[in-house]
Amino acid sequence: MLGGVGWPSTAEYYRTICRISQSYWDSQGHARPLPTPEIAIESLNMSFAVNNRGNEQPGSWDSWDHYYQNAMESLESAGAELLIVSSITPHARISEISKTVSVPVLSAYHAIGTYCLDNGFNELLILGTLPTMSTSSFVDGVSRYGIKASYPEPQALRDRVGSVIESLYLNQTQGASAAIVDIVQECIPAENLANVAVCLGCTELPMAFGAQADNPMFKQSGISFLNSTVIHAQSAFDACLT
């Protein structure tokens, strides 16, 4: 697992994969203690990762890409048979940062796209960090599965999503779920709410919904929310079984 960006996200991915594993093996009647996958974590420096993000200038991403590539190579050298990045935001450059390793890297876009297909969703509103919502990578990533995806418009709504994420990162959950619902209702006409799923495309966002945060999908105020962390973590556990 490539983690540290940020560390709460890494802890949540680890917890979720282990919880999914224990639930599965318990359902199979496995003897105690219940198995969990062997997981190595390479934890990055959040400050370096954020402050070395590139821009549209040629070569501006080199330092950032190499930092992630080195971490992936360390995990592969340690014997990892598959890799997962425990954060959605870096997936915008998943092709660049995974090109130096030969083991499979589990894409969040693939996991979410196939989940939408399996559950009959063909339209998706994506809520994520401001860097996530500033590129087309997530939208393009799920569009390969026939999903019509979009981010909140106008920019002011994206900024409000970013503010909610900042509060949740500081464990300030009061009023967060209502704020998210308000944003969604401003993005999607009431008559279309039943036809569009809303992807909580940042690990902090599901924290706003309390106990429901352990579910891959849940409903609130007539809105179908998808938890990207649980969906991505489930894909990692499924890969461990094969």
From TrEMBL:
- Listed Pfam families: Asp_Glu_race
Q: Which InterPro entries does the annotation name?
A: Asp/Glu/hydantoin_racemase (IPR015942), Asp/Glu_race (IPR001920)
Question: Which organism does this sequence originate in?
Answer: Onishia taeanensis
Gene3D superfamilies of this UniProt entry? 3.40.50.1860
Q: Which GO terms describe its molecular function?
A: amino-acid racemase activity
Tell me the protein's name.
Answer: Aspartate racemase
What are the leading ranks of the lineage?
Bacteria, Pseudomonadati, Pseudomonadota, Gammaproteobacteria, Oceanospirillales
At the top level of its lineage, which domain of life is listed?
A: Bacteria
User: Entry's SUPFAM superfamilies?
Assistant: Aspartate/glutamate racemase
